[in-house]
Specification:
By secondary structure, the chain is an alpha/beta fold. It contains 12 helices and 10 strands. Helix 2 packs across helix 5.
Length: about 300
């Protein structure tokens, strides 16, 4: 089986092809001049690094190498270093607070980002580390989401609290939280609906869930994870804004990096919001979601060997 770094590099292959290939095209036996810098900036913006990061990197490069002949490898190496500097402060694994039993984790995001699968994978990781937990099928509008979470519960040996399709999500969460406290488990992970096109209803529902858990524990939820799909590119920014308005998002998980050439979106998100990036996903397998590590990601992003 390939190592995580191998899977990450393969998963970011499309983004690395765009960035690394583009750099090679620009810097073939060429001095670093204004035209080259402009082309590099456009390339980085196309890869969804964002305008701020792209202009800052080209300015940094101009300061040290302007007028000199540079190789694609030098450019990629310097870009990886700059990207890692931006990402290091936000590369923080999701850790359970032992003082909270249970540590309540509310998982939010639009439908289709991989919320339910992410819950299953994270919960399996905690269970594998010897932690006890419960899962809550709070996306009560989608029968498929309820069934999917039950399957993940069976795989990881964790109980799943669920009701029939269409049941009141807040009531379900309230009962599940009480059960989790009585059982003394380490964590409670709550799946939620994600119909952002009807923002008012979604906001009301998430607000209601937050209020009912706070009736039991004023400090809950202790973590609010927003799951983002990398293939949405810059649209991820508006999703962070929308869900931050609805609930106090405390960290991000980025899925489906293997399905896009826009993996650079993480850099723009880190710069703009500064939220912890807990994990990234590059495939369907349980081992394809791992804690986010800045330097490995940065080097894979530009197509460098680690």
């Amino acid at each position: 089986m390939r190592s995580w770094l191998g899977r990450l590099k393969a998963g970011l292959g499309r983004t690395a092809g765009t960035i690394g290939g583009g750099i090679s095209d620009i810097f073939v036996k060429r001095k670093l001049d204004d035209q080259a810098l402009e082309e590099l900036e456009e390339l980085l913006i196309r890869a969804d690094l964002g305008v701020t990061a792209a202009t800052r990197f080209s300015a940094s490069l101009a300061k040290t190498r302007f007028g000199q002949e540079v190789t694609p490898e030098e450019i990629r190496g310097q870009l990886a270093e700059e990207v890692a500097l931006v990402l290091e402060p936000v590369a923080l694994p999701l850790e359970l607070d032992a003082a909270q039993r249970p540590h309540v984790i509310l998982v939010v995001g639009v439908n289709g980002t991989g919320k339910t699968t992410t819950i299953g994978k994270l919960a399996s990781g905690f269970a594998g580390a010897g932690k006890q937990g419960m899962l809550v099928a709070g996306d009560t509008f989608r029968a498929a989401a309820i069934e999917q979470l039950k399957i993940w519960g069976e795989r990881s040996g964790l109980p799943v609290v669920a009701r029939e399709t269409g049941a009141d999500a807040a009531g379900l969460v309230f009962d599940a939280f009480n059960q989790a406290r009585a059982a003394g488990v380490d964590f409670l992970m709550i799946d939620t609906a994600g119909r952002l096109q009807n923002k008012a209803n979604l906001m009301a529902e998430l607000g209601k869930i937050v209020r009912v858990v706070q009736k039991i524990d004023a400090s809950a939820p202790h973590s609010v994870l927003l799951v983002l799909d990398a293939t949405t590119g810059q649209n991820a920014h508006s999703q962070v804004e929308a869900f931050s308005d609805m609930c106090n998002v405390s960290g991000l998980v980025m899925t489906k990096l293997d399905g896009t050439a826009k993996g650079g979106v993480l850099i723009g998100l880190a710069e703009r919001f500064g939220l912890p990036i807990h994990a990234v996903g590059v495939g369907e397998g349980i081992e394809d979601l791992q804690p986010f590590e800045a330097l490995s990601f940065a080097r894979a992003l530009v197509g460098l060997e680690d």
